Amino acid sequence: MQVWLYLDRVKEGYARKLAHMWHGPFREAEVIDTYVVRLEIAGTEYRLFPIVHTPKLKPVRNFPDRPDIPLVVEDQDRFDFDEALLPKDSRDTSLADGEYDVDGIADMRSGCRTRYGRKMRKFLVYWKGYQEPTWVDEADLNCGALLHDYLRRQAHQHRINACSRTKKPKKREIAGEPATVVR
């Protein structure tokens, strides 16, 4: 059986909080007593006494029940990743009371900050079947793919705007004299 070994010693100069405490995996060579095990240390870079108390060990977990089938998704304009995980017959397209389909997102504005310092964003949303857009909090939107596409387009637009700006020399005018270039 393969096990992890807990070693609470940390090299000098390293933060204990960030150190790896579980080392291995090691193979149990022999059970000596109820609470004592000999580990197979040969062939590893560890230099430690091979006889260990069992509370310092935990088993290595292999997860054979986890699916190993890769998820294959066709390319689409908008895609919610959660949709691919659902079976075909489980999709319920009916909306609950107070829920509406989003047609598109037109604008974004930043509101006040939360008590944790995060900015609250509001989006100008066009709804299917309605003419007038409304401002909606980010937390109230349930259209992850549309929101992701909008934010990606905005970031791309900001990058283009930042690259297209060129630095021009500043001009200074003195009263009555023509403008001169300041270097």
Q: Would you tell me the overall average pLDDT?
A: 78
The order of strands across the largest sheet is 4-3-2-1-5
CATH topology value of one domain: OB fold (Dihydrolipoamide Acetyltransferase, E2P)
Largest sheet: 5 strands, antiparallel
Distance between the termini: 74 Å
Share of residues in strands: 25-35%
Global geometry = elongated
Number of strands: 10
The radius of gyration over CA amounts to 31 Å
Provide an overview of this structure.
Residues 163-183 are annotated as: Disordered. Residues 100-162 form the Chromo domain. It is a single chain. By secondary structure, the chain is of the alpha+beta class. Among the domains are: 2-59, SH3 type barrels; 99-164, OB fold (Dihydrolipoamide Acetyltransferase, E2P) (Beta Barrel), CATH 2.40.50.40. It contains two helices and ten strands. The protein has helices at residues 81-85, 144-164; strands at 2-6, 22-33, 36-40, 51-53, 57-59, 102-113, 119-127, 134-137, 171-172, 180-181. The strands form three sheets. The chain has a five-stranded antiparallel sheet with strand order 4-3-2-1-5, with no helix packed on it.
